[in-house]
UniProtKB/TrEMBL annotation:
Function: Responsible for the release of ribosomes from messenger RNA at the termination of protein biosynthesis. May increase the efficiency of translation by recycling ribosomes from one round of translation to another.
Gene expressing this chain: frr
Protein name: Ribosome-recycling factor
GO MF term list: ribosomal large subunit binding
Organism lineage string: Bacteria, Pseudomonadati, Pseudomonadota, Alphaproteobacteria, Rhodobacterales
Xref: Gene3D superfamilies: 3.30.1360.40, Ribosome-recycling factor
GO biological process per UniProt: cytoplasmic translational termination
Domain Ribosome recycling factor: from-to ranges: 23-185
Ranges annotated as spanning the membrane: none
Length: 187
């Protein structure tokens, strides 16, 4: 076993890229003063007994720069969609008009900008945790190989590879966070 152990670093990279992709999606949901349909992507509605993305229960439109509308297809879900938006932490007060939920996007004040930077930091931290969990999985694979006869030199080599990969992705998360926070604080 010791000579033919090959850690699948491509799999680790792919999974870490997935964490980065998820982070970018969450960052896109943070509004910076302009209306965007993507800001509702992480909001899940309890529809038909399971969490469902808003875009699967209604049509999301941006009719003007400071307004997002959700045209809910099922009248029975209108209140659930409204509740999900209220509880999402987006800081938007939905207004009902039949099956259409209007979301006026208020001008961002300094206090709200600071709150959004904190939310961005939480998203970044969860991405870092995901990257570290992937690192742990890689290290566990190395430990199993060590138990199966992997040499200590090879173990150290693979551990440093996994750690380098982890450090790279944590830096990417930090850079993305810094960029997003600057974007949020920009008036």
């Amino acid at each position: 076993m010791s000579d033919d152990f090959e850690l699948d670093t491509d799999d680790l990279k792919r999974r870490m890229d997935g964490a980065m992709s998820s982070l970018r999606t969450e960052f896109a949901s943070l509004r910076t003063g302009r209306a965007s349909a993507s800001m509702l992507e992480p909001v899940m509605v309890d529809a038909y007994g399971s969490p469902t993305p808003i875009n699967q229960v209604g049509t999301v439109n941006v009719p003007e720069p400071r307004m997002v509308t959700v045209n809910v297809w099922d009248k029975g879900l209108v209140n659930k969609v409204e509740k999900a938006i209220r509880e999402s932490g987006l800081g938007i007060n939905p207004q009902l008009n039949g099956t259409i939920i209007m979301l006026p996007i208020p001008e961002l004040n300094e206090e709200r900008r600071r709150e959004l930077t904190k939310v961005a930091a939480q998203y970044a931290e969860s991405a870092r945790v995901s990257v570290r969990n992937i690192r742990r999985d890689g290290m566990d694979q190395i430990k199993k190989a060590k138990a199966d006869g992997l040499s200590e030199d090879d173990q150290k080599f693979w551990e440093s590879e996994v750690q380098d990969l982890t450090d790279t992705y944590v830096k990417k998360v930090d850079a993305a966070l810094e960029t997003k926070q600057e974007e949020i604080m920009q008036v």
